[in-house]
Amino acid sequence: TSLEYELLLSLARARGRVKSREQILDDIAGRDYDVYDRSIDVHISALRQKLGDNPKDPTYIRTVRSVGYMMVKQ
Question: Domain span at residue 51?
Answer without folding.
Answer: 2-71
